[in-house]
Amino acid sequence: MSPELGLVCITVSKDVRYRTVTRKRLLEHSDDGQRKLLDAIYRDNLQTLDGALQYCKREGIRLYRMPSSIFPFFDAAVGRDVMQALVPSLARTGQRATELGLRLVMHPDQFVVLSSDSADVVANSVKILQMHADIMDLLQQPRSPWAVLEIHGGKANRSDALVERIRDLPDAIRTRLCLENDEYSYNAEQIHDVCMRAGVPMVFDAHHHIVSEKLPSYEDPSVAAMLAKARETWPDPAHQLVHISNGREGFNDRQHSDLIAVMPSAYAQAPWIEIEAKNKEEAIAGLRGWLH
Q1: Architecture per CATH, 4-291
Q2: Rounded to whole angstroms, how far apart are CA atoms 227 and 201?
Q3: Which of 65, 122, 258, 279 is in the most buried spot, having the most CB atoms within 10 Å?
């Protein structure tokens, strides 16, 4: 079986585009005005999500990462209120994704730091994660790593706190949560250790790994080794998800390039690969030859 390639959020073309709103702009409106604005954005973005699912189906893409901000301010009372009228529509969209064989995942933003030493930051992180879990529930996606909520480890040298806080998360979050290695706080071995202790899957990112370890090639034996170790953390190995990107200015550049010119040969064994390149669908199209 060839790996399934995943589209991240939006396309370079205007096929898939979402609306958003800043807090400043939202607060310029009355309470009723805020509800009307968010209702219009939510409905437009839900229609865009439907379009994204159809786009993926047409292009033979079976994994789609929804944007973290697909329903702005859904974690606030006004957003929750607005969403009530859209519950049946979200259920239909989620059922459509399931019928099309599409896997939906999300990557909450950098404000999620479960390992923080600030109680307020941790509480806000759980609130953000709960919002994402609620979206998955409304879309009727399973409470399993199939419907991944992927985050980074956060504050370095706080693995014990991270493990403890993951264990205390509500089921709707914890059953979907996956941790990804990075080049700043938790390298691949460290995040693998946290995943094993917390009982959650690991999303292996080969580019973060080579940057963190200053490796000259994706063919370094540690890439294949970490891919295999990460797979062992998944309840169903066939659902293992990994990330790939290339450096923009050089192999070890943290910034993502427009396309994917180099893939780890070990990734031929990865069931699901999210393509984190600037040119998104063009990068996926360019990898069709690699798949075969």
Answers
A1: Alpha-Beta Barrel (3.20)
A2: 12
A3: 65
